[in-house]
Specification:
Layout lengths: L2 E5 L2 H8 L5 E5 L13 E3 L2 E5 L5 E5 L7 E3 L4 E2 L9 E5 L2 E7 L4 E6 L10 E2 L3 H19 L30 E11 L5 H6 L6 E2 L2 E2 L5 H13 L11 E10 L1
Parallel strand pairs: 1-8
Antiparallel strand pairs: 2-15, 3-4, 4-5, 5-6, 6-7, 8-12, 9-10, 10-11, 12-15, 13-14
Amino acid sequence: MTEHPILFSGPMVQAILDGHKMMTRRVVKFPYAPKMVGSAYNLGHQSAFPASKGGWIFYTCPAEFVTIRMQEGEGLLCPYGQPGDRLWVREAWRVGAWAEDDGKIAVDYKAGPICRTKWLTVPDPDKFNDLWEGSTQEAEVAYGIKERYKWKPGESPCRWRPSLFMPRWASRITLEITAVRVERVQDISEEDVEAEGLALQSWAGEDLEGWPKTAGFAQLWDSLNAKRGYGWEANPWVWVIAFKRVK
């Protein structure tokens, strides 16, 4: 069993905590042609893409396997792991309080509930000192104090830190991968939309009642991936990763 970090937005973190999200889709990054041009042609179980530098590259994409096999026999493994592996979730966080004598930090999570619940030991003393010194300065600017905390839980003056920079020790959510397959993003079913935690009636202020649930997923997908060239209309190959929460 191996562990891999994975990023989730605040709403998706909340959906995991509520037990509504049990699946995620991530773009497959092909090593030799990261940007495909032209159209893809179906060749049975294979798809051929014109490579951006000329020539053709063939990928076999059997949905029941974790590995994409290329014509040369090389394999492309899912970077997030295989069934039985674990994912630890990175989310937006901040220092909620600190105990300088013990080298411990309490963490607030932006997705909520924004409240420190227990002390976490920072494995690296130098990292603890950086967090302690920075948090002390932020508290002094906000409240004019340097004590470990003089505020109610959830009212920390410390800045929010991006999910990308969450360390393993601060993560509160661990997931176990139960299945991995590959498919085109537009192949998502309405059942999978719900497993993605998106059983929504509206998205971006637009009423979706009466629309297929995939319409809301398509808008969310574009908000995260269109600018990178992997929008809904591009219909990229995606890793479909099913998981369960390890409590």
